[in-house]
Amino acid sequence: MPPAPPKAFFPVTTLSSPIVDDIVHQLYQENDFAPFWIQKNGNRTKATIIVQILADSWFEGLHPEDYLLPSIHARWYSNTQQDLALLDLLLTKGLARYTADIQGGRINPCMLNPRLFAAARTKEVNIHQLLQQAVAAPDIAGFMENLLPDHSEYRLLKGALSRYRKIATSYTMSPIPYGPVLKPGMQDPRLPSIIKRLQASGDLSNSIPPTIEYTEDTANGIISFQRRFNLTTDGVIGDKTLAALNTSADYLIKRILINLERWRWLPKKVQGTQISVNIANFQLTAFNNDTPPLQMPVIVGKVYNKTPVFSDLMRYIVFNPYWNIPLSIAADEIVPSQIENPGYLTTNNIKIFKGWDASSPAVDPHTIDWVTLGNKIRNYRLRQEPGKGNSLGRLKFIFPNKYNIYLHDTPTQNLFNRHQRAFSHGCIRVSDPEELALYLLQGNQKPWNAEAIRQQIMTGKRKVVVLDYPIPVHILYRTVYVDPETEAVHFYPDIYGRDGELLSSFFTETNENICLYPPY
């Protein structure tokens, strides 16, 4: 007997139900409208397997009820020809909807908000072809398992989802009142509740008694919690730490669910050499398959200069690059600075050209009336020359894309010490560009080593080096991350408000409660 479904929440599906139903109708038409899963003699072996597949969608952060399990359940014991035919159809429709969700995601991010999610999903899915293959598969359970995202981070998130569902069902959370800032050595009646909260989340051993004393053990638990919630790890319980402690397990589960969804937007498996940048935790990671040989902090776009989410191919590296200053920056920042300090362009090694093509002549900045220039700035091109103070630093990493986003060095290395690093105009500044260049050039037929990279930089001359093999780059927005070594679950701030956009699409106003209990 199939499991009874849990309470529903209602997603915006990637493919509408009518489109999926049309695909299913075509599939039956190709099969002369014969059943796929229920044999004439009543054998339901395949049907039982499909029911289990749909029920297990719960563990993928999906909802069995979305795949017609209530209707399947209602007809499971009927033996009339009409009900058996309908049962076979319901199984196929449920499988089709599930296939669409695990292969392309439950929502179409571009349709949700083109501005925020313009290129978040990098694949299209042929559901008709996948269903044909599922019908023909000798092991349908294995076939469907193979369609799931094959990313280590996706699998770790599934484990985190399971743990937080257990927290939600086993720990009753009452809000901890705000009050004086707490430091180790102090006493406070709120501390027993804080200790229980840390124990529920696994940040503090259950052997620690819930006392009003702020002990060293409790401080270590707070530091562990602060680290996971991207807070200053000082062991001090102020308003920010208390707000994080008061975040419900229900809400954290929702954030895990939408981050599982984000992985479904990517290709099933990311293979070979890859670069990913997680905007939300300001981190670049290089991969060789699932192994990350290189990680480094990055700086991303300000809230009003959001770095977009997309994927493309890294094709070349520029040593000692020019910086052709965007018109908006020239008008809003450079011109006012030049008016205030007539030597600004010279001091910052910026040349000005009359026109935007390569043959445009250079202009003496002292011949321009900067105060009255106004919109005429668009007739000029400003270019910062290569050098130590160049805003792009000494290395620029290009993966051509419609957003004109790239990775680059920066002279403002001190900003990498900041906890929150959204300072750029949209491009991504990397903290160790020479190490990144070495990683990218290791696959070239003409090998580069660290010394060769340094020597090329020291020449001060612009040089373009094309990668023999373009390398995929994924600019991502992941607000929940599971450490593969410790399995600690980290929650990053939603700096661009994108979690909120996704949450509003996953849950209706009338049904904000996600199902915390397993369906069977």
The largest sheet is:
8 strands, mixed, barrel
Share of helical residues: 25-40%
**Strand segment tally:** 15
Structural class: alpha+beta
- What low-confidence regions span 5 or more consecutive residues with pLDDT below 50? 1-14, 509-520
SS field, number of helical segments: 18
Give the neighbour order of strands across the main sheet.
Answer: 1-2-3-12-10-9-4-13
Q: Estimate the strand proportion.
A: 15-25%
- Rg (C-alpha, Å): 28 Å
First and last CA, distance: 11 Å
- Which word captures the global form? globular
What is the mean pLDDT?
88
How would you characterize this protein structure?
With 520 residues, the protein is of the alpha+beta class. Among the domains are: 17-150, no CATH class; 281-322 and 392-476, L,D-transpeptidase catalytic domain-like (Beta Barrel), CATH 2.40.440; 324-384, no CATH class. It contains 18 helices and 15 strands. The chain has helices at 17-30, 45-55, 69-75, 81-104, 109-112, 127-136, 140-145, 152-170, 191-200, 216-228, 239-245, 249-264, 327-340, 344-347, 370-373, 433-441, 450-458, 498-506, and strands at residues 273-278, 283-288, 291-301, 310-319, 323-324, 350-354, 362-363, 380-384, 395-398, 407-408, 422-424, 428-430, 463-476, 480-482, 489-491. Strands 1-2-3-12-10-9-4-13 form an eight-stranded mixed β-barrel. A hairpin with a 4-residue loop joins β1 and β2 (283-288). α1 (17-30) packs across α6. The longest helix is centred in the N-terminal third of the chain and has 24 residues, at 81-104. Mean pLDDT is 88; it is low at 1-14 and 509-520.
